[in-house]
């Protein structure tokens, strides 16, 4: 999990008044790192969300997760989910950060904080453009035209932002915002996201998300953002399930990120 560099973001706005009149309070359930290597955990999370009546979902799919090859069975599953109403979103290309960090702050931000998964955090323009184009073509080869791109760890360099704004895509997301491309507007909505890599991170995530849920109870959009590891550990499972249950008790309508972007587009 990481905070985007505000220098490369459009100006943030609260939900426009026009959008408040168009939509009830919303819930987006977003599953990150969807790839052959994480498939079993992803299916577990999808099944649990389905049982709770939380659908459709936004599935953040990685074309070559950590350099892995294509998997026809996995891709058929993605297409079945899309046919059932889920949205397929491009989520990086390999997911891992290919460049060595320079200096203590970069090591903290790109290795410790994100575990080396911030693929687009330091890419120059040309390489970011190449990966974005290759990722889109992967989805298009399956007959899917993606509308959104979410970078791993929500991190993007200046060159990545420039390359993204030139892509035929409608939106992206940061940790705090849904951003309409190429230049906004944006919708402020802090992601409810867990870190499950160690016991202390799991405990901190539980505490943080309980407090964040209270703070966002009246917000028009709540973002439930899950990762495959959230299926493996008891504390994150309980914690995100409680947040999801509370969101449904607030009578929030489950929607995809694309549906949120379309509503935002209607006010631009």
N- to C-terminal distance: 29 Å
In terms of DSSP E residues, the strand content is: 15-25%
Shape: globular
Mean pLDDT: 87
| Beta-strand segment tally | 10
Global structural class? alpha/beta
Instruction: Provide a count of the helices.
Output: 9
| Alpha-carbon Rg, integer | 17 Å
pLDDT under 50 segments (min length 5)? Answer: 1-18
Name the helix and strand elements from N-terminus to C-terminus, one letter apiece: HEHEHEHHEHEEEEHEHEH
Report on the biggest sheet. Answer: 6 strands, parallel
Helix content: 40-55%
Task: Note down, in words, how this protein is organized.
The chain has 268 residues and is an alpha/beta fold. The chain has nine helices and ten strands. The strands form two sheets. Strands 1, 2, 3, 8, 9 and 10 form a six-stranded parallel β-sheet that branches. Strands 4-5-6-7 form a four-stranded mixed β-sheet, covered by helices on one side. The radius of gyration is 17 Å and the shape is globular.
State the gist of this model.
By secondary structure, the chain is α/β, with parallel strands linked by helices. 40% of the residues lie in helices and 15% in strands.
Q: What does the secondary structure layout of this molecule look like, with pairings?
A:
Blueprint: H1 17-22, E1 26-34, H2 39-51, E2 58-61, H3 72-83, E3 87-90, H4 103-112, H5 125-141, E4 148-149, H6 158-165, E5 171-173, E6 177-180, E7 186-188, E8 191-193, H7 199-215, E9 221-226, H8 234-249, E10 253-255, H9 257-265
Helix pairs in contact: 5-6, 7-8
